[in-house]
């Protein structure tokens, strides 16, 4: 359930930031950026939560999310 709701959040954020970026209000764009970063973090941390082994540490996940947030705001 968490996986599908996160994917839906990422899809809606992508729509707001992509095709509808010119018609969306400023607050919607900022909220979509925040939601996209949280969704990417949840999707990358989900396998670890379920007990699956990952090769990269959690710090790289946080770094990736911060880099994504920086790219989205530029």
Describe the structure concisely for a colleague.
The longest helix has 24 residues, at about 25-50. Helices cover about 75% and strands about 0% of the residues. It is an all-alpha fold and about 70 residues long.
Task: Give an overview in words.
There is one protein chain. The chain is 76% helix and 0% strand. The protein has 74 residues and is mainly alpha-helical. It has one domain. Helix 1 packs antiparallel against helix 2 and helix 2 runs antiparallel to helix 3. The protein is flat and about 40 Å long. The termini are far apart. The mean pLDDT is 77.
Task: List key phrases describing it.
74 residues; mainly alpha
Question: How is the topology of this model organized?
Answer:
Blueprint (H helix, E strand, L loop, with lengths): L1 H16 L8 H24 L8 H16 L1
Helix pairs in contact: 1-2, 2-3
> Per DSSP, what share of the residues sits in E-state strands of 2 or more residues?
under 5%
Shape: flat
Largest sheet: none
Distance between the termini: 32 Å
What structural class do the secondary elements suggest? mainly alpha
**Low-confidence runs:** none
Secondary-structure element order, as H and E? Answer: HHH
What is the count of distinct domains? 1
Whole-number mean pLDDT:
77
Instruction: Find the count of extended strands (DSSP E, 2+ residues).
Output: 0
Helical stretch tally? 3
Helix content: over 70%
- C-alpha Rg (nearest Å): 13 Å
